[in-house]
Design brief:
By secondary structure, the protein is α/β, with parallel strands linked by helices. It has 6 helices and 16 strands. The strands form 4 sheets. Strands 9-8-7-10-11-15-12-16 form an 8-stranded mixed beta sheet, with helices on both faces. The longest helix is centred in the middle third of the chain and has 15 residues. The protein is elongated, with a radius of gyration of 22 Å.
């Protein structure tokens, strides 16, 4: 049985579903509106334990999932949300051993997801223009892995000016003007590889796809958005939630093809 250790990040969940992130440290105490809990009461306990504050409030203690880590951090850049991350990994077909080039490290959410998908035999190279964003992403990645993994390279640089990488299996773009990165991805992405771009509005989608068509050498251009609505299932109550995670961005995909061809099947495509 794996128990909580000092220095570990845990999640305290109260009866109304509020989540509190706590880094365990011997001798310390965490205070909530519903009372305080001693860290020593959690260290050495198994995951999933229910504890009680000194005011009698019950808290569930678990390790945060990847999605909870992504949405729970104080962030400077707009993150790619968990509902989109899963679709990106599947749509771009990130697999163990893949060589991935990312531009727009941002919060590091997609970087972390890519690292988990490619595994220790894969490679992720991530470019970020803003030094403060890169520093924040470095902290987030270090917090998750304990150190920067050896198969991750973080670069302070502008992909619009070109990249050194070649023969990459996947390119992931989270940029305000992804169409300006088309020359760089043409050079970096191998035939058969997949490019993904996250675009908040549809005019960005149109300009990105127009740039791919003009450059040629791309096919199977597809775009979609995801809307996530939860449901409440409690006793005899069965209803959709009052709030939903609606539009967060358009997910754009294309395949790199050989000989500067342009191939777009007719009709509405889907993944």
């Amino acid at each position: 049985m794996k128990t909580f250790a000092e220095g570990e990040l845990v999640l305290l969940v109260d009866k109304v579903g509020r989540r509190h992130r706590v880094r365990l440290k011997a001798g310390e105490r965490h205070s909530l509106h519903s009372g305080a809990i001693e860290h020593d009461a959690l260290i050495g306990r198994p995951e999933g334990v229910v504890v009680t504050t000194q005011l009698g409030a019950r808290l569930l203690v678990v390790r945060p999932t990847f999605a909870e880590q992504v949405t729970g951090r104080v962030r400077q850049a707009q993150p790619i949300y968990p509902k989109d991350l899963g679709a990106i990994l599947v749509g771009a077909d990130l697999h163990p051993g893949a060589r991935v080039l990312e531009a727009g490290t941002g919060t590091g959410a997609l970087t972390l997801a890519a690292l988990r998908a490619v595994g220790p035999d894969g490679l992720v190279v991530s470019y970020e223009q803003r030094e403060d964003f890169l520093e924040a992403a470095t902290r987030a990645i270090t917090e998750t892995f304990g150190a920067i993994p050896p198969n991750l390279t973080l670069k302070l640089g502008d992909i619009y000016q070109g990249v050194e990488e070649r023969d990459m299996d996947r390119v992931l773009l989270d940029l305000s003007e992804p169409w300006q990165a088309v020359p760089a991805l043409c050079a970096a992405l191998r035939p058969g590889g997949i490019v993904f771009a996250h675009c908040p509005n549809v005019s960005q989608v149109q300009r990105f796809f127009d740039a791919l068509r003009e450059a040629r050498g791309f096919g199977m251009l597809e775009v979609f958005e995801l809307l996530q609505r939860g449901w409440t299932v409690r006793g005899r109550s069965l209803r959709p939630s009052h709030r939903m995670v609606a539009h967060t961005g358009f997910l754009c995909f294309a395949r790199r093809i050989a000989d500067q061809e342009l191939f777009e099947p007719e009709g509405e495509g889907f993944l």
